[in-house]
Amino acid sequence: MSDTDAQRRQFLKTSLGAAAVAIAPGMLLFETARGNTEAASSKVRWGMLIDTAQCTQGCNDCVTACNKENGLSGGTAPTDSQWIRKIDLKDISSGHELSLPMMCQHCAEPPCVDVCPTAASFKRADGIVLVDRHRCIGCRYCMMACPYKARSFVHEPLTDQKPDVPRGKGTVESCTLCVQRIDKGQQPACAEACKNKAILFGNLNDENSEIAKKVRSVVSVQVRADLQLNTGIRYQGL
Amino acid sequence: MADLTALRFKNRLFYVLLAAGGLVALAGLYAVHMMESHGHIITGMNNQIVWGMPHVFAIFLIVAASGVLNVASIGSVFGKSIYKARAPLASLLSIAMLAGGLTVLMLDLGRPDRVIVAATNYNPTSVFAWNVLLYSGMFTLVALYLWTMMERRMNPWSKPAGLAVFAWRFILTTGTGLIFAFLTARQAYGSAILPPMFIVLSFAWGLAVFHVVQKVIYTWNEKTLDPAILQRTRNLLGVFVIGALYMVATYHLTNLYFAHRTGFEHFILVDGGIYPNLFWWGYVVFGNLVPLLLIYFPGLGKSTCVLVASLLVILGAFVLLYVFIIGGQAYPLDIFPGYQVSSTFGDGQIAIYHPSIYEFLLGFGGLAIAFIITTVSVRVLNFMPNDKPYIPD
């Protein structure tokens, strides 16, 4: 090896070392800024079991908590967004009355995802159905397709949005199962706010979880089970 | 000298028509600007009626754009000379209406500025995404077809191009029907009969539009349509109207047969307020029975009668689409069968919808675009049906 070659090698080594020293702090900062980058796992299936016997007629705590957590106005005009609503039911034949919260059912086979032309409606690996607000063109086909009327269209410009919950005029939105809380290891706001513990949240795929145990031991139904959408939200006592 | 005066009058008329069409299109643009600035809050649409008046206009234009090609198909595919002579005009109308309909559809989006996203992010399971391909394919094929007809050297390719258009428009209208046919959860839709129903409807609506435009072009050129030709195309319109009425009747009878959909049918046909009135009076009586009378009643069926019949068929089309699209959403979704339901989100209630002026302006803007394209094209190129004896059958 000639002297020139040795010098060249030395130069390259020094340059690489200098580059690494220059970039390293930036990379560290980048990693810190990105926060938790762990992807949603398909081993998890987030779901809820709603016990209608515990849900009180007139109680709106879950709705209020959802509005507060996600920055919704709480208005109930036909053009206002409602991610969760209380439904009062009366059995036509028996007259039996009950009340329950209704939201996106986070289907395993979501019709909204099927019909969305731009794939803005999508299902995470852990079963949470979301809308990518940057990709939604506002065609509202998902609203036509949803059997649960769970989606809202943003009819007006929005102000004072929550940093964790991006929303936008002209796009469609629905219950995210408080994905921003779930990813931090917390419960959805509605489940946490329910005084009567009518909403049990957890991982349906973990056989040792409280929700999985209860789903095994009590009779629960899916709303419009005839559509075979395999919903993540189950109801007890319906 | 007299001829020159007539020419000047025609010239002035052309610019007046162009200005009128342009003004309506501008009004449509103003509506879009307002909807963009304020959001859909200024329309009558809400979270229960998510597709409103713009969809009525857009779907009419798209379905009629496909149906008007029937005239061309009878010429190219079946070799009928009187229809062959009308194929260029039919193709032009198809392109014009498709452009108008798609403009309305695109500008009614919540985020029309993101329409490029629809072209770059493609969900293969979405019927809307299929339609992006179907519509752009239709434009291309019809433009090619026009080229083969109007450029003499390309004439030998006219028949295969006509065949391709014939097949494509069937698939396209099937796609339009499928938008609703795949919505299984809604009582109004979710029926396999919808795609063929839309195809038969397109025949009637397209031919009605063709009759109106043809009448105007003949008047403009101070010519009279051969009564024998009028009789053939008039009879065809009658047959298509009967066919369309049959398909709509079958759709409602099919729904009535399903026990869980009788509530919806009762709403649309009997006690749903404006919807049964529009359906029976607007669609059945004025959109079908009166036109049939004008076409077939002895002593009637003259040029003006056919024009009025065609206009009524078009009016009936708008009424039917209003009942189908708006009425179909107004009836509450049956989420909990067997229960009486109430909530703050309109569950269990008939949804209210009052279309706003902006929706109408947008819709008329779409019609104006179709009008401008047609008016300019028939002036600069020869789209006048040319019935000459040497055209082979």
Task: Offer a quick outline of the entry.
Chain B: Pfam families: NrfD (PF03916). The complex is a heterodimer of chains A (238) and B (393). With 238 residues, chain A is α+β, with helices and mostly antiparallel strands.
Give an overview of the whole structure.
By secondary structure, chain A is α+β, with helices and mostly antiparallel strands. Chain A has one domain: Alpha-Beta Plaits. Chain A is 29% helix and 18% strand. In chain A, the strands form 4 sheets. In chain A, strands 8-1-10-9 form a 4-stranded mixed β-sheet. A two-stranded antiparallel ribbon of chain A has the order 2-3. A two-stranded antiparallel sheet of chain A has the order 4-5. In chain A, a hairpin with a 5-residue loop joins β2 and β3 (97-103). The radius of gyration of chain A is 24 Å and the shape is elongated. The model of chain A has no long low-confidence stretch (mean pLDDT 92). Chain B has 393 residues and is mostly helical. Chain B has a single domain (20-380), classed as Formate dehydrogenase/DMSO reductase domain (Formate dehydrogenase/DMSO reductase fold). Chain B has 14 helices and 1 strand, in the order αααααααααααααβα. Chain B has helices at 2-38, 53-67, 69-76, 81-84, 87-107, 115-120, 127-150, 158-181, 194-220, 227-257, 262-271, 274-296, 303-330, 357-380, and one strand at 339-343. In chain B, α1 runs antiparallel to α14 (357-380), α2 (53-67) packs across α9 (194-220) and α3 crosses α8. The longest helix of chain B has 37 residues, at 2-38. Chain B is globular and about 70 Å long. The two termini of chain B are 40 Å apart. Chains A and B meet through β2, α3, α4 and β6 of A and α6, α7 and β1 of B.
